[in-house]
Amino acid sequence: MTKAVLGIIGGSGIYDLPGLEGVEEIDIRSPWGTPSSRLKRGRIGTTEIVFLSRHDVGHRLSPTDIDYRANIDCLKRAGVTDLVSLSACGSFKEELAPGTFVLVDQFVDRTTRRASSFFGRGCVAHVSMAHPVAPKLVERVAAAAAAEGIAAVKGGTYVCMEGPQFSTLAESLSYKAAGYDVIGMTNMPEAKLAREAEISYASVCMVTDYDCWHPDHDAVTVTDIIRVLTENAEKAKRLAGRLARDFPAEHERCPIGSDRALDHAIITAPDARDPLLLGKLDAVAGRVLKSA
Ligand SMILES: CSC[C@H]1O[C@H](OP(=O)(O)O)[C@H](O)[C@@H]1O
Ligand SMILES: Nc1ncnc2[nH]cnc12
């Protein structure tokens, strides 16, 4: 049995989690770098929660400057088994209007300037990303939204751009034509790294705008996004609170194996592995490396 620890990553507009009891800031060091902010550990009901502000209080970090490896590694070290991201996003669908919550289930990674794996020279691993979110965790998020009367659309494809500039009209139209649902700048490589770290991942994407493709809406601005975000943040925090209160004490085994993604992923022969890299992988891959 593995005790469930619920991680929450707060994105734009969500820099804290009200209702977290017995909060302590934990100073976890990572060999991968510096996390976005100090992790906050506390409880909601009987569930242990670890909260991380992705851009830090004051929105100090741009999507490119976030050290996604340090964030995921620290969450793993803090014992997180299940991780929910709360994110702002633009929409490519008329029916996904600003204010809509989308529980995305696919990602397209168009980022270019981010370290996107814990593995590499000296320890090569290939995990499956065919199904990037953990279905049971998404079910729990959907149930929490329903219980709080928050409308949430299940399923959708999130394209992750590098940013920080928003898309050109041609890019926006091409993403729309490709059938993508929403766009943001942060869920990749976060979801890939969570998978490598065997943490079940789900993302709640809160639509703040229609990007720039919509003929009846002006191109997106930060001012508009912040206005919608402020309205959404209260709902997102309510959703997270309910999710936590109803969360099981034991981590539920993931039906698609996101919590044991490394079982058959490491290809480098034991005697060809780099001890320095193995040292850095102690948290992320400790489960499989210890038994090797
Ligand atoms: C402030 S709008 C652009 C910004 O918001 C989203 O971040 P997050 O996913 O952390 O909520 C988007 O990806 C951009 O980073
Ligand atoms: N239109 C958009 N493009 C990229 N990231 C976003 N975050 C919120 N709205 C966005």
From TrEMBL:
It is an enzyme of class 2 (transferase). Pfam families: PNP_UDP_1. GO terms for cellular component: cytosol. One of its GO terms (biological process) is purine ribonucleoside salvage. InterPro entries: MTAP (IPR010044), Nucleoside_phosphorylase_d (IPR000845), Nucleoside_phosphorylase_sf (IPR035994). One of its GO terms (molecular function) is S-methyl-5-thioadenosine phosphorylase activity. Residues 6-243 form the Nucleoside phosphorylase domain. It catalyses: S-methyl-5'-thioadenosine + phosphate = 5-(methylsulfanyl)-alpha-D-ribose 1-phosphate + adenine. Substrate binds at M185, D209, Y210, D211. It comes from the Bacteria. Pathway: Amino-acid biosynthesis; L-methionine biosynthesis via salvage pathway; S-methyl-5-thio-alpha-D-ribose 1-phosphate from S-methyl-5'-thioadenosine (phosphorylase route): step 1/1. Keywords: Glycosyltransferase, Purine salvage, Transferase. Phosphate binds at S12, R54, H55, S87, A88, T186. The record marks S167, V222 as: Important for substrate specificity. Catalyzes the reversible phosphorylation of S-methyl-5'-thioadenosine (MTA) to adenine and 5-methylthioribose-1-phosphate. Involved in the breakdown of MTA, a major by-product of polyamine biosynthesis. Responsible for the first step in the methionine salvage pathway after MTA has been generated from S-adenosylmethionine. Has broad substrate specificity with 6-aminopurine nucleosides as preferred substrates. Homohexamer. Dimer of a homotrimer. Belongs to the PNP/MTAP phosphorylase family. MTAP subfamily. This is S-methyl-5'-thioadenosine phosphorylase.
